[in-house]
Design goal:
Structural class: mainly alpha
Shape: flat
Number of strands: 0
Helix content: 55-70%
Strand content: under 5%
Largest sheet: none
Length: 132
C-alpha cells in the first residue's frame, strides 16, 4: 500500500499560511497598539453602564419575558429545519419521509406553525413586546 502525501502539500501550505497570518496579526497588534493605562481604561466595563453603586440591581421583569420568548421562538424554529430538509428532498431525487406519511407531516407542520403564531399573537396582545 503506497500512500502519497504530495497531494496534501497545498492543504498543509494553506494551514501554515492561516496560522502564520493569525499569529502575525495578533503579534503586530500587540506591538503596535498604544499602551497608556488610564483610570478610565482600567475601570471594569459592564454593558455600556458605568459600574457605580451596588452590582446587585433589580432587572425589570420585561427583560426576562423578552429573553424567554426569544428562546422559545428560537427553539421552535429549530424544529423547522428537519422538515425543511425532508421537504427539499421530497422535491429532489429521494425523500426522507415515506409517501404515505408525507400528507400527515405537512398538516402536522401547519398545526405546529399555527400554534407558534397563536403564541406570538398572545404575547403581542399581552404587551410583552412593548418596552415602556
Amino acid at each position: 500500500m503506497d500512500f502519497d502525501l504530495s497531494i496534501y502539500y497545498p492543504i498543509f501550505l494553506y494551514l501554515v499560511a492561516i496560522i502564520g497570518f493569525a499569529v502575525g496579526t495578533l503579534g503586530l497588534a500587540h506591538f503596535i497598539s498604544p499602551k497608556r493605562k488610564t483610570a478610565t481604561k482600567l475601570m471594569p466595563y459592564e454593558s455600556g453602564m458605568d459600574p457605580i453603586g451596588n452590582a446587585r440591581q433589580r432587572f425589570d421583569v420585561r427583560f426576562y419575558l423578552v429573553a424567554i420568548l426569544f428562546l422559545v421562538f428560537d427553539i421552535e424554529l429549530l424544529f423547522l429545519y428537519p422538515w425543511a430538509v425532508s421537504a427539499y428532498q421530497k422535491f429532489g431525487e429521494e425523500s426522507f419521509i415515506p409517501d404515505p406519511l408525507s400528507n400527515y407531516v405537512f398538516w402536522e407542520l401547519l398545526v405546529f406553525l399555527a400554534t407558534v403564531a397563536v403564541a406570538y399573537v398572545y404575547a403581542w396582545r399581552k404587551g410583552v413586546f412593548r418596552w415602556r
